[in-house]
Amino acid sequence: MTEEFYDVSAEAKKNVNKPYNKYYEKAKAASDAGKLKLVSEKICQPFNGYSFDLNEGQVIRYEVLDGPQILDTIYHVKSRPTEEWACSYHSTVLGAMTPYEGMHYYSNTPFTRPLLTIIKDTVDHDKIKATYGPTASHSFIYNSGRCTSGIYEIAYGVANHNSCDLNLKQGLLEALGEEKARLINTPAAFMHFQCVAYDKIPMNLTYCPAGDIFKKGDFVELLAHEDLYVIVSPCPLGDQNDTRSLEGCVNWPFRVAIYEGEDGPLETAPDPHHQTTEPFDFIKAGRPGMGIGKVGEKR
User: Is 211 domain-assigned?
Assistant: First the structure.
């Protein structure tokens, strides 16, 4: 690496996130002070997908009950669910593959705005890293990440097993109805309560047992900056303590709760109304004013 090296990702993270960090700080302060008011709650059972209506300025909490249950989550904007959703690529570029307190979930092109922010995570991250190494976390994003019934048939020889792909589609059907749900190529999920370490070479992750990492009452909270459909899947790998067979995976109920501030919705990030155009519309229009770089000279 030379002194002239420009780390575009680091600069983007620093500059793009800065205007939105104040909303994280205010929401976290309200949570820390016990100034969030319960709006609704649901105890969810394994092997099903769930949908929740989350309004702008509300906080959603995912909570461990009697045992750690892996959760896969996706988020769609209520006013245009087939057009805008929380995008794993944008969120990773502007955050990390292992989400953390203060990280924003950005939506897809052309919107590219923060839809949610993680405001609180009570899991002992130091213990995770001490147990499984410096790249370990319990919240993570994986390439097109969500388990599927197809991969379970390949890996375990079991057809039509419950999966996060199946459960997320169940939640989408519940939220949107069949016509709109079938238009969605389920985006990559944002995972919680699943111990992993990005420690393989070539680069890949290791799925690690939950062990004694999680305690009853551990939770992750996210602030919504827009009215959203929240779709949640309890992963059938359960607590991931024994994955030698799918039948041996122990699954647990979990709690999902929605809160707002004592006086109503919390303050949220405004829509920046970017000028980038929807890609197909832009191409059909002849790509007017498209920015480009330069072509290299032959050596």
Answer: yes
pTM higher than the cut 0.85: yes
Does 151 reside within a domain?
Answer: yes
When pLDDT is averaged across residues 112-116 and rounded to a whole number, the result is: 98
Residue pLDDT, tens place only, 79-105: 999 999 999 999 999 999 999 999 999
Name the domain count of the chain.
Answer: 1
Query: Contacts by 129-135 with C-beta closer than 8 Å and gap 24+?
Result: 131/195, 131/208, 131/211, 131/213, 132/195, 132/197, 132/199, 132/206, 132/208, 133/197, 133/199, 135/98, 135/197, 135/198, 135/199
- For residue 196, the surrounding DSSP H or E stretch is strand 196-200
Estimate the share of the chain in helix, then strand, then coil, as percent rounded to the nearest 5. Answer: 25, 25, 50
Domain of residue 45, residue span: 16-284
pLDDT above 70 for 2: no
- Rounded CA separation 86/118 (Å): 13
Q: Is 41 helix (H, G, I), strand (E, B) or coil?
A: strand
Rounded CA-CA distance 235/47 in Å is 8
Phi, psi of 124 (to 5 degrees): -80, 90
Q: List, in sequence order, every beta strand (DSSP E) within 211-267.
A: 219-224, 228-234, 254-261
Report yes or no: 228 and 237 within 8 Å, Cβ to Cβ: no
Q: Residue 2: inside a domain, yes or no? A: no
> For residues 30 and 262, what is the distance between their CA atoms, to the nearest angstrom?
9
Coil, helix or strand at residue 173: helix
